[in-house]
Amino acid sequence: MLNVENNPDFLNSFIDYIETILNKSPNTIKEYNYDLNNFLKFLKIRFKMTNEKDFKNIDIHDMTIEDLKRVTLDDLHAYLGYLTRNNNSKATTRARKVSSIKALFNYLTAKTNMLDINPAQNLESPKLGKRIPKYLSLDDSKRLLRATATTSSEKERNIERDYAIITIFLNCGIRLSELVGININHISFDEEKLNVIGKGNKERTIYLNNACIKAIKAYLDVRPNDIKTAPNDKPLFLSEQKKRISQRTVQMIVKKELQKAGLDTNKYSVHKLRHTAATLMYQNGVDIRALQELLGHESIATTEIYTHVNNEQVRDAVENNPLADL
55 with 120: CB under 8 angstroms? Predict the structure, then answer.
C-alpha cells in the first residue's frame, strides 16, 4: 500500500500525474515515492531545516515549492555523493534516483510551471558498466525441463503446473510479474497466443510455440475448478490455496527445480530464465527488433545486452581468421 500521507503537496501532485497520466505501474510509483522522499529528507538536512539526522524520523510534509527554488545542481551532486559515501549505493541505484529527481523537476517546470528553473536539467546519470547477463546453456535448459517433469518424491505435487511455469519462462522470456498476472482468458489456443500486461500496464502479444501449448493444456487438465478468487478473476496459475499464485511462490518453485537439476541457485534465478530465453533465441537467429517486441523493452539498447557472445565464440573467431596458420 502506497503511503502518501506524509508527502508535501507538490510531491503528491507528481504522484497523481505519473499514476493517472503516465499510467506507471504500482511498483514504479512506489519506487518514485521512496526515492523522492529520501531526496527531500536529504534537502532538509542540507538546508538546515531540521536537527534530526535519522532519515526515518525526518518529516517532509511541510516542505513547499519555495524550498525547492533553493535547489541547485550542486545540491543534486551533493545528494549523489551522500548516497555513494553513506549508503554505498551502486551506480544502478544512483541512476534510478537521478531518473526520479529529473522526472519530478521536469513535472514542476515543464508540466505545471510551479518552478521557473529546472536545477536537474543538466544532471547526468552515473555511467553504468555493461554487464553480460547470466543465462543457462541450451543443455542446462533441457536438463532443467527434464528435472521439472520428473517426480523426485511421492509427496511432490503440482508437477504439471510447475512444468508449465518453467516452460513459459524458458520459451517466452516473460517477467515474473507478467507470469503471475496471466488469466485464462488471456490465452487463445486457436491463435496460439498469449496477451501479457507488462511494465507501465502495457499489453503485448506473445505467440506460443508447441511446447508452451502442450504444457499449458496438460496443466489445465488437472487444474482445480473450485478456485477461491473473485468471480471475475480467472488466474491461470493457482497456489495450494487455490488462489492466484504469488511471485514469492514462483520464485520458490524455480529454486526447487534448479536444485533438482543440479544447477547453482546462487547463480540462477527467475530473472535468469528470462535472460536464458532471450539469449537462446538471439543465438538461434531471432532479429533484435523482434526480440525487443517479445521482451517488452521500450529501448532497443536494453535488448542489445543479448547480442553478447561467449568466450568460446571469441576463441573460434580468432581461430577462424584466415591468417591463423601463417
Answer: no
Q: What is the pLDDT of residues 41-70, one digit of tens each?
A: 999 999 999 999 888 899 999 999 999 999
The secondary structure of 268-279 as a DSSP string is: --HHHHHHHHHH
Domains identified in the chain and CATH numbers: 9-111 (1.10.150), 138-313 (1.10.443.10)
Q: Kindly give, in sequence order, each residue whose CB lies less than 8 Å from that of residue 115, ignoring residues fewer than 6 positions away.
A: 65, 68, 69, 105, 108, 109
Sheet holding 203-207, edge to edge: 187-188, 193-197, 203-207
Cell of 295: 521482451
Active site residue 271: yes
Catalytic residue selected from 175, 186, 244, 272: 175
SS3 237: coil
pTM score of the predicted model: 0.65
Low-confidence ranges of the chain (pLDDT < 70): 1, 129-132, 152-155, 308-326
Residue 306 appears among annotated catalytic residues: yes
163 is catalytic: no
**Catalytic residue status for 199:** yes
Distance CA 188, CA 184 (A): 9
pLDDT, tens digit, for every residue of 122-176? Answer: 999 888 766 667 889 999 999 999 999 987 666 678 999 999 999 999 999 999 9
The pLDDT score that the predictor gives to residue 155 is 67
Strand, coil or helix: what is 204?
strand
* CB neighbour class for 269 (10 Å; exposed up to 12, middle 13-18, buried from 19): middle
Residue of 32, 268, 282, 306 with catalytic role:
306
Active site residue 61: no
Whole-angstrom distance, CA of residue 323 vs CA of residue 320:
8
**DSSP structure string for 112-157:** T-S-SS-TTTTPPPPP----PPP---HHHHHHHHHHHTS-SSTT--
Burial of 309 (0-12, 13-18, 19+ CB in 10 A): exposed
- Catalytic residue at 46? no
Q: Phi then psi for 203, rounded to 5 degrees?
A: -95, 135
